[in-house]
Design goal:
Elements: H1 15-22, H2 61-69, H3 71-77, H4 79-84, H5 89-96, H6 104-109, H7 119-126, H8 129-141, H9 143-153, H10 157-168, H11 173-176, E1 179-180, H12 181-190, H13 195-211, E2 220-221, H14 234-240, H15 256-269, E3 279-282, E4 299-300, H16 301-306, E5 323-327, E6 336-339, H17 341-349, H18 353-366, H19 385-397, H20 411-423, H21 434-441
Helix pairs in contact: 7-18, 8-10, 9-15, 10-15, 10-18, 12-13, 13-14, 14-15, 17-18
Length: about 450
């Protein structure tokens, strides 16, 4: 996935990005999301020369060499744009005079492992007993700050803490990343296939330095420029960061109040509704019509209840008038969920179902909840990008409009898969796996 809006990029390093970029299982709102940067414990994929460039003309060896040679001039040409955004000449010259392109970044831009993990494996890998224990310690240690932030922004403290834990393992230096953000964004602004996007990130980084919000030597992060314990991209920092400790700086690296409040403000502006759930795990009745599992098919909780879609515990939905859609992230044999607006708010932080599920589940565990009632299906592996593209190509050949054959199995692909499953006499859960591909090859 390569969409970038609202300040974050799908090109960060680690699990947060691997979930969105590698798995290729994204939400229909992916184009509106600001994917985050890095997660400790899951390093970026090893560079693979055969994949470098993926055919893009700006990623050929000749184009990269030419852009590298032209790097000083490219940076100099960005001065008028920086000036128009409030960056002084003094700041510009001070921080760009000795910039050097970090060409290693180009190897990470298009590299992917051969196969992705199934979504359940990601969620289980991220929501661990250690993260729950550490998160509860964080909640207790900074209780006074969370009290003030909840009052000011109306965002659940458990969700903020879950993002903190998933993004960087609560601020572990290995999770935050050690690359200089200005060097990374400058490189990507002048070299490679994402220059238009990263020019804004580079200028936003200079704005941070102009205002001295974060010290230069503390402004380190992922190879794509996400920084701080909750992994802000520079443009999303400009949109969402707040000075909550009152020192005149919006420091989402060193100030715990600013980190917590800025992350809460991000979720608030992305539509978080205080006091409401992100979603509910549900049990489906015998004979259920799996074609109802569609993001565009929203019903009230009362209507879902009338269809026999109940919580495994038997506890009633607290607000039956709230609307939700049914999500089957692991197919019919995995857990089922009714997803609410707060799930969509998390997806705007990072447009991967696995990420948003991990955040929501960790948040619930932090407040005392237990494991999911339904186990994830035991799959040997997920699909490779080539296999996802093959599914899309076969659907296109059958006459389905799935958009681009890019390996990103979004809403159009899922709906087409469901229709194919109906025609093939399969359970129409819309889930793309190895068995589905094998069936399509017959």
């Amino acid at each position: 996935m390569a969409s970038t809006t609202r300040g974050r990029t799908t090109l960060g390093s680690g699990v947060a990005v691997a979930l969105a970029l590698i798995a290729g299982l994204v939400t229909p709102a992916a184009g509106q999301a600001q994917t985050t940067g890095s997660i400790f414990g899951f390093p970026p994929p090893a560079p693979q020369a055969a994949q470098a460039g993926a055919g893009h003309p700006l990623m050929t060896p000749q184009a990269l060499a030419q852009a590298e040679a032209n790097f000083p001039q490219c940076i100099a040409n960005l001065w008028p744009l920086a000036q128009s955004k409030g960056v002084s000449r003094r700041t510009f010259e001070r921080y760009t005079a000795s910039l050097q392109p970090q060409m290693k970044i180009m190897e990470f831009m298009d590299s992917q492992p051969e196969f992705s993990k199934p979504i359940g494996a990601y969620v289980n890998m991220l929501v661990t007993e250690w993260r729950v224990k550490k998160g509860r310690e964080i909640l207790e240690r900074y209780k006074a700050v969370f009290d003030r932030v909840e009052k000011a922004y109306g965002v659940d403290r458990y969700a903020v803490t879950a993002i903190w834990g998933i993004e960087s393992t609560y601020g572990d230096p290995k999770g935050i990343g050690s690359r200089n953000v200005l060097e990374s964004t400058a490189t990507l602004a002048c070299i490679g296939r994402r220059q238009d996007y990263f020019r804004d990130e580079f200028i936003a980084t200079l704005q941070i330095l102009e205002k001295d919000d974060v010290p230069y030597d503390h402004l380190t992060g992922s190879w794509a420029g996400a920084f701080g314990p909750t992994q802000f991209m520079p443009t999303s920092f400009q949109r969402f960061a707040v000075d909550f400790d009152g020192d005149g700086k919006r420091n989402v690296v060193d100030s715990i109040p600013d980190i917590i409040a800025s992350t809460a403000n991000n979720l608030k502006l992305d539509g978080w509704e205080f006091g409401k759930a992100w979603g509910y795990e549900v049990a489906l009745p015998q004979g259920f019509d799996y074609r109802l599992a569609n993001r565009s098919n929203k019903k009230t909780l009362a209507e879902w209840n009338a269809l026999g879609v109940r919580r495994p515990s038997g506890v009633a939905y607290p607000r039956p008038g709230d609307t939700a859609y049914l999500l089957l992230p692991g197919g019919a044999s995995g857990p089922a969920f009714l997803m609410m607006k707060n799930f969509d708010a998390i997806l705007k932080y990072n447009p991967a179902d696995a990420y948003a599920l991990a955040i929501g589940h960790l948040a619930d565990r932090l407040r005392g909840g237990g494991a999911f009632a339904q186990a994830w299906p035991k799959e040997e592996r997920g699909l490779s990008k080539a296999e996802r593209q093959e599914i899309q190509s076969r659907l296109t050949q059958m006459g389905y409009d799935i958009g681009n054959v890019d390996g990103i199995l979004g809403q159009k692909s899922r709906v087409a898969i469901q229709d194919y499953q109906v025609r093939a006499g399969l359970l129409p859960d819309g889930y793309p796996d190895v068995a589905l591909l094998q069936q399509m090859r017959r």
